[in-house]
Design a protein that fits this description.
147 residues, mainly alpha, AhpD-like, 0% strand, globular, peroxidase
Length: 147
């Protein structure tokens, strides 16, 4: 796929995969063991791959790791997670991660779902507009807050 045809989420995934490829070339033994470990972790076991992707998404949101949020939002969608399942998982994450986790959940996760086709049609457009409005309000609030 041509980079000009990619949406921002697909470009982020491509950047991540290119970075992994570079790491694999420079550190093949470590990369091989890391890949084997993560493949084993995400293999079907007592938990389904779908459940594991939801957990990984929650951890990614909690850690505020944007590449992993995008990657595991896509993973959830690839495992046929519904929008409700994804939102419930990130809601639980926000219960532990507070406002920082919630801000990632209501912006980046929803943007990734829209970009990867979770919300099609008018509802997806409305969610995107609502998300943008929320970001604008948050930016205004953050300018007034002291850290």
């Amino acid at each position: 796929m041509d980079q000009q045809q990619m949406n921002p989420m697909e470009m982020a995934l491509m950047d991540y995969k290119e970075g992994l490829g570079t790491f694999q070339q420079k550190m093949p033994e470590i990369a091989e063991k890391y890949n084997a470990f993560t493949e084993a972790c995400f293999a079907k076991g007592e938990l389904s791959q779908k459940q594991k992707q939801l957990i990984a998404l929650g951890v990614s949101v909690f850690a505020q790791d944007e590449y992993c949020i995008i990657y595991h939002t896509k993973g959830c969608m690839d495992q046929d997670c519904s929008e409700e399942e994804i939102l419930e998982a990130i809601g639980v994450t926000a219960a532990f991660g507070g406002g920082a986790a919630m801000s990632q959940a209501v912006t980046l996760v929803q943007e990734a779902m829209n970009e990867f086709g979770q919300n099609n049609g008018e509802q997806g457009q409305q969610d995107q507009q609502d998300s943008q409005n929320g970001q604008n309000q948050k930016q205004g609030q953050n300018q007034n807050m002291k850290h």
